[in-house]
Amino acid sequence: MIDRLTGMSARLVLFAAVLVIATAAAVAGVLVAQQTGHAVRDLTLRSGAIARGLVAQLSGPLEMGLLSRVEAAVDRLDTEKDVARVEVSNIAGRTVVARDFRPLVEGADPVVMPVLGPPDAEGFHSPIGQVRIHLSAESVQARRDALTTGALRVTVTVALVALALAGLLALALASPVRRLRVGVERLAAGRYADAEAVPVDGPRELKELGRAFREAAAAVAEREAELRATNVALKRTEEMRDAMTHMLVHDLKGPLSNLIMLLGLLETADLDEEDHELLVEGKARCQGLMEMIADLLMVARLESGKVELEPSRFVVDDLVDDALRTIEVLAAQSGYRVEVVSPEDDHVTAVGDRRLLERVLQNLLTNALHYGQSPISLSAAVDGERLLLVVEDAGDGIPPDRVEQVFEMFGTLDRGRGTGLGLAFVRLAVEAHGGTVTVDGARFTIEVPASAERLAPAEAA
């Protein structure tokens, strides 16, 4: 039984038991207080009867001044368990006899009764003294204990009955709840065909919950089928796009390569200055188009996850030098100054796909040359297990609300300038390394996992 009382059922049993016990205890406390008050009143009435009997015995001895008989009558009250103290005083109010038998009830009013003398000629009784009887605290406590014990028994009995009833109720709820849980777990595992196994019986709330789960499972199953069909169509479209991309690249690279070679041959011909400038410009445009095709192909491969990294250990200083070498002609033509901060140790190494990381630096430097302002700074450092590459220029940089735009394919801030592939390649290549790219104005920061090990000069070479 205990094994079946789990979850909500167990909490329901505990809550019901605590609630019933607390209620029964509160009711019992009130009843005990009330019955104790009744017991005190009963004791007061009994003390009155005792006082009347004592007054009848003391009338003659007190009038004649027979103190020994008064004391003897008072001492006989020692056997009365409800009497704590007895005081007998004369008409002047002076105490004649006082006896303490037991602890008295603090704060309780004593029973006071006058002692009357014999009747006079007219039949009137004149008072000759007074009897005061105090209630016994032991007697009151004994009655209170008896009442408390009885109330405790009743409370325990009520609690046990309530606990049994709560247990039966919990068992009635446990079965449909357990079956509902099993059915939902099957749905969570993708077994939507088992939706009919979700129970719709039990209390009204559980029935509604079961029906809601069945309807949700049917909707999810239908949506999953639609998504599966959509994914198949998207995958087919992606495969067609990749095939088209490779086909276009293949079809364009051949003619462009031939055109660049022919333009190179024409450079050796005897041309006037204007024709030679046009030839050089055409060749540069063809080479730019070839680079754009290569970027497009690489970005498509990175997006599809088909590029496998070729990690190797490389010298960070060599990576910086090779990246600078690829843009030195463009930097000279632009008249821009490039400042470099590389590791002080020429043999600090890192691990990564050197070819991709060099291309990342090249794209960032080219972007700064095209859109930034001189000077351009490039810094590289290995910080623990991180390789940090920072490229920054003196321009205004990218507004914060347009950072995401420049990292999208064909996303540029100035239409007509650039292809919008360079920074898209940067982000994809860095993320392929498990790194991050952050932009703050004109400052681009690359952080990729690396190794801070130092190699010997011979190995670094």
Question: Can you tell me about this structure?
Answer:
The protein is α+β, with helices and mostly antiparallel strands and 461 residues long. The chain has three domains: 8-160, no CATH class; 190-306, no CATH class; 308-460, Heat Shock Protein 90 (2-Layer Sandwich), CATH 3.30.565.10. 58% of the residues lie in helices and 16% in strands. The protein contains ten helices and eleven strands. It has helices at 8-64, 67-75, 137-188, 204-266, 273-303, 316-334, 354-371, 403-406, 422-432, 457-460, and strands spanning 83-90, 95-100, 111-119, 125-135, 312-315, 338-341, 349-352, 376-383, 386-393, 436-440, 443-449. It has a five-stranded mixed sheet with strand order 6-8-9-11-10. Strands 2-1-4-3 form a four-stranded antiparallel sheet. β1 and β2 form a beta hairpin. The longest helix is centred in the middle third of the chain and has 63 residues, at 204-266.
Helices and strands in order, then pairings?
Blueprint: H1 8-64, H2 67-75, E1 83-90, E2 95-100, E3 111-119, E4 125-135, H3 137-188, H4 204-266, H5 273-303, E5 312-315, H6 316-334, E6 338-341, E7 349-352, H7 354-371, E8 376-383, E9 386-393, H8 403-406, H9 422-432, E10 436-440, E11 443-449, H10 457-460
Parallel strand pairs: 6-8
Antiparallel strand pairs: 1-2, 1-4, 3-4, 5-7, 8-9, 9-11, 10-11
Helix pairs in contact: 1-2, 1-3, 3-4, 4-5, 5-9, 6-7, 7-9
